[in-house]
Amino acid sequence: MLRRKSKRTKEMNAELNITAFMNLMVVLVPFLLITAVFSQVSILNLNLPTGTSDALPAEEDPPKALEVVIRKDKFDVLERNSGLLKRIPNNEEGYDYKELNAFLQQVKAHPEFNTDTGVTLLMEMETEYDTLIQTMDAVRLIEREERELDEQGNVIQGELFPNISMGDAPPEDNQATNSPGANQ
């Protein structure tokens, strides 16, 4: 005789127990919110070239214009009309932002530039983004050895040349024949 197994279907009334998961979420969510690092986004207005080459009427005394050229191995600080003011070579760590900032503080103290707020950053095509940002910080703000604090404990920073324009650096070999910063 053959025995047949009885095919009874057992109905299981199963409930989903999510108590342990909810306990984990109650602890985990506040912990993640407390330890999260919120990034601060700041906006810096830049003056970009328009691309038009309309000739300006010739002036007797052209205005002073400060330019910082970012090369792969140095900074060149120029005055558009008179030429090179200072060449700052890279140090062991890379670009010498402190030397650039210190020299621009000396330039800002000069009577011809003490009311000027604009500077043009000219960079080569291979310039890294981080280099550009650090150069902009060195050009915009006064870096001091001693930190001065206000009433709320915030660091007081002075401004050097906050109005920054950007453009492409002229080829280095043409600097000797053409005026620095001239559009090629």
Automatic annotation (TrEMBL):
A biological process term (GO) from this entry: protein transport
Residue ranges, compositional bias (Polar residues): 174-184
Subcellular location: Cell membrane
Residue span of region Disordered: 161-184
Keywords from the named record: Cell membrane, Membrane, Protein transport, Transmembrane, Transmembrane helix, Transport
Gene Ontology MF terms in the entry: transmembrane transporter activity
Gene Ontology cellular-component annotations: plasma membrane
Bilayer disposition of the protein: Single-pass membrane protein; Single-pass type II membrane protein
Short name of one Pfam family: ExbD
Family: Belongs to the ExbD/TolR family.
Protein name (record): Biopolymer transporter ExbD
